[in-house]
């Protein structure tokens, strides 16, 4: 018996049904096979797809998929009848009903089935999250996450968690136990989906929540639908009255009743305000809604405050004329407020500019430094490494970090910071002696003659940057090159990790700054980290001793509107076996549980490190790197560990983004063009053979030129302490550097780690010869 039956019902509206079926019953995500077929995880619950297809178009679409159960229905069949026909053929322990226009993904279905499989038979309904797509925007998140998070993993009576009734009333977000659905089939059999969506949790003995997306609601453009009539509006009011009567009959409790009552009043007032009903119909609707508001008012009900409270009072009093006058006055007030708000915003900008320019007349503070990384993300990258070394060598200089409000809670305790746009932010930028950034400060920032701007960058360029993007509009995306050059003209120093970067920066960012060929400060850790550091990171990540850890870190594609998976990670992990862990840095899991990787994650064989910082720790934990065109390869090469390039779309990437050199001709290791090739490399000794070592050695000579573990020190001494170039620590030759221990070496007893095997030594010598 399948754990879950996904019942798609109705006509093939706007042709959406085939794409949903292709996802559910066709190839599935990344080639995992039909969701109803053998699952990658043998113990995973199975999912079947049933299509209650109304009309030839829907029937033809469903018939193309042998794994789908098709229930052909004639044109004119009602939605309620279609749901009933689909439920009658469904074999699953749980049922999910979705209109043919909406979307259900294989990942969503698998995740929902896994969550449902955990629930006891006492639970009747599993409420899920959903996304919303319109002709303007695809996959927008719903507002239901907070409601679904409240019960956590517990199953509860609805009365104990009435906020679950606030989850959007879509039947597709109510996954119901089949026996429960059939026991109430007569009540659930109507065409009124709003009624059924609310009635399902109202009648349930216990409900559970699943805060992952299991349904994509595709909202059709209103102009493409038949116009609603006054009778349709009256029918909506009647639906809510039926639901409140059901709640009373069911003795649902004060919480759920209050939620339903508030939903009825909100819907009624919205219809009066926005539906454009003819005046007689609007007056009659208001009268009926007033009667319903009084008749169903729960004991102890208290109106909310503010304007909403006024609206509800007028509705309860059936004061239609007063309501219309109030509505007109409120509309005029909003217009005035909008105009005043726009004026205030303009005035605010003028005040900000005036204050900022006043601050620019203040003396520059020689002991104040501003740091920013990735447009206010937090303490990270090269600026973080410089700030850490500054605290050691020049503690008299006070660092202040620019951090977006959303990232403030993630800051290390005690970090002095400013939030962009605030009064202190602009004053700090105006008076600081040093401004350090791996991106750029806003256009409005003025470069003072006695202030020092340090551009650290955040990667070695493979892709075209700056002015070199002029011929690549997909990459430039409307970039204003005049503004870019104005920002570049503020730079005093530009940090570089190799001669290639120095030359490319000079070409891409043409100005008079001084190049600091000192190495990337963020890469210092690759030479200072100890065996204990490596072990500690692996323990934090949950990597068992002796396991091979592969870090998979792909880059962004400018030519893609949305993210596209490039590897079937489930299949790759299965081929690599239990002794290999994949550290995946990317948006692969879409919320985690709704994924074919769930079982592998539970076993610790796939670890999502997309939000793990700093990335340098991930590199230290990994035995090897798998990437495509990400600049992480240049940093990771410092560790002298294997790198495998997965370049399945190199020609497209190079043509649309533009590149500075042919990575396939000068790679840091083996190159795979298909997943089969990649799997072959990683399941054989090739991933770290002599050919890979020689390629890596040449790559390191070219791109790890200045990285020797003392880059941050050189920057601090030169920029903050004013030491001459001659006084700075010279760059250590590549052959004299000692990278951090590999995980294999870190696991050895100290006496063994200091004496590498003869075979490994010979390979290293051959590679650098």
Count the strands?
21
Q: Label the overall shape.
A: globular
**What count of helical segments does DSSP give?**
31
What's the CATH architecture of the largest domain?
Alpha-Beta Complex
Average of pLDDT: 88
Helix share, percent: 40-55%
Runs in which pLDDT lies below 50 for 5 or more consecutive residues are 26-40, 587-596, 755-769
Tell me the distance between the termini: 63 Å
Structural class: alpha/beta
Number of domains: 4
**What is the CATH topology descriptor of the largest domain?**
Spore Coat Polysaccharide Biosynthesis Protein SpsA, Chain A
Provide a compact summary of the structure.
By secondary structure, the protein is of the alpha/beta class. The chain is built from 31 helices and 21 strands. It folds into four domains: 4-225, Spore Coat Polysaccharide Biosynthesis Protein SpsA, Chain A (Alpha-Beta Complex); 245-318; 363-523, Rossmann fold, CATH 3.40.50.11820; 537-706 and 739-761, CDP-glycerol glycerophosphotransferase, C-terminal domain (Rossmann fold), CATH 3.40.50.
């Amino acid at each position: 018996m399948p754990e879950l039956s996904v019942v798609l019902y109705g006509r093939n509206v706007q042709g959406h049904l085939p794409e949903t079926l292709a996802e559910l019953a066709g190839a599935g995500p990344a080639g995992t096979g039909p969701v109803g077929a053998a699952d990658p995880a043998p113990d995973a619950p199975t999912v079947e797809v049933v299509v209650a297809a109304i009309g030839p178009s829907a029937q033809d679409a469903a018939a193309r998929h042998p794994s789908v159960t098709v229930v052909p229905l004639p044109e004119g069949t009602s939605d309620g009848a279609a749901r009933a026909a689909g439920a009658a053929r469904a074999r699953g322990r749980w049922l999910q009903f979705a209109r043919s226009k909406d979307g259900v993904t294989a990942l969503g279905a698998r995740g929902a089935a896994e969550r449902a499989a955990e629930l006891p038979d006492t639970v009747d309904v599993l409420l899920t999250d959903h996304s919303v797509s319109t002709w303007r925007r695809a996959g927008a998140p719903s507002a239901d996450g907070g409601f679904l998070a409240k019960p956590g993993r517990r199953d509860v009576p609805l009365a104990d968690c009435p906020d679950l009734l606030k989850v959007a009333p879509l039947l597709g977000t109510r996954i119901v136990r089949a026996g429960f659905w059939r026991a109430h089939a007569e009540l659930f059999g109507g065409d009124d989906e709003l009624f059924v969506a609310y009635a399902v949790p109202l009648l349930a003995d216990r409900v559970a929540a699943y805060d992952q997306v299991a349904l994509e609601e595709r909202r059709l453009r209103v102009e493409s639908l038949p116009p609603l009539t006054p009778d349709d509006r009256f029918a909506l009011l009647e639906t809510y009255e039926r639901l409140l009567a059901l709640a009373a009959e069911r003795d649902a409790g004060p919480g759920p009743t209050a939620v339903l009552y508030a939903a009825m009043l909100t819907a009624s007032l919205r219809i009066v305000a926005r539906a454009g009903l003819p005046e007689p119909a609007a007056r009659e609707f208001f009268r009926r809604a007033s009667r319903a508001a009084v008749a169903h008012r729960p004991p102890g009900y208290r109106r909310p405050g503010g304007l909403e409270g006024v609206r509800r009072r007028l509705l309860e009093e059936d004061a239609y004329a007063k309501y219309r006058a109030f509505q007109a006055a409120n509309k005029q007030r909003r217009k005035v407020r909008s105009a005043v708000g726009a004026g205030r915003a303009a005035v605010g900008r003028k005040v900000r500019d005036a204050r900022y320019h006043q601050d620019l007349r203040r003396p520059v503070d020689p002991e104040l430094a501003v740091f920013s990384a990735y447009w206010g993300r937090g303490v990270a990258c090269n600026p973080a490494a410089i700030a850490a070394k500054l605290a050691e060598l020049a503690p008299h200089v006070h660092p202040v970090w620019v951090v977006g409000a959303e990232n403030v809670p993630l800051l290390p305790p005690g970090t002095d910071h400013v939030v962009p746009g605030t009064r202190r932010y602009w004053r700090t930028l105006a008076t600081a002696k040093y401004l350090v950034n791996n991106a750029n400060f806003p256009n409005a920032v003025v470069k003072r003659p006695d202030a020092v701007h340090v551009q650290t960058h955040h990667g070695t360029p493979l892709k075209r940057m700056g002015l070199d993007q002029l011929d690549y509009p997909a990459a430039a995306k409307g970039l204003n090159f005049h503004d870019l050059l104005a920002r570049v003209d503020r730079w005093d120093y530009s940090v570089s990790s190799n001669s290639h970067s120095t030359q490319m920066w000079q070409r891409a960012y043409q100005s008079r700054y001084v190049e600091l060929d000192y190495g990337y400060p963020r890469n210092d850790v690759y030479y200072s980290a100890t065996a204990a550091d490596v072990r500690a990171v692996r323990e934090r990540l949950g990597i068992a001793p002796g396991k091979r850890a592969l870090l998979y870190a792909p880059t962004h594609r400018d030519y893609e509107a949305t993210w596209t998976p490039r590897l079937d990670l489930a299949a790759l992990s299965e081929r690599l076996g239990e002794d290999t862990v994949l550290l995946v840095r990317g948006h692969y899991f879409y919320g985690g549980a709704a994924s074919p990787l769930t079982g592998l994650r539970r076993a610790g064989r796939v670890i999502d490190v997309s939000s793990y910082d700093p990335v340098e720790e991930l590199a230290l934990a990994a035995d090897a790197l798998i990437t495509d065109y990400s600049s992480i390869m240049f940093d990771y090469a410092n560790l002298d560990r294997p790198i495998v390039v997965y370049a399945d779309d190199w020609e497209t990437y190079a043509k649309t983004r533009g590149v500075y050199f042919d990575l396939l001709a000068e790679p840091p290791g083996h190159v795979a063009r298909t997943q089969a090739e990649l799997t072959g490399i990683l399941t054989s000794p090739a991933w770290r053979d002599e050919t890979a070592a020689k390629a890596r050695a040449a790559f390191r000579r070219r791109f790890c030129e200045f990285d020797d573990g003392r880059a941050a020190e050189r920057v601090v001494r030169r920029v903050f302490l004013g030491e001459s170039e001659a006084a700075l620590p010279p760059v250590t030759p590549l052959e004299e550097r000692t990278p951090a221990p590999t995980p294999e070496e870190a696991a050895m007893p100290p006496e063994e780690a200091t004496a590498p095997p003869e075979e490994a030594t010979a390979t290293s010598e051959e590679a650098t010869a």
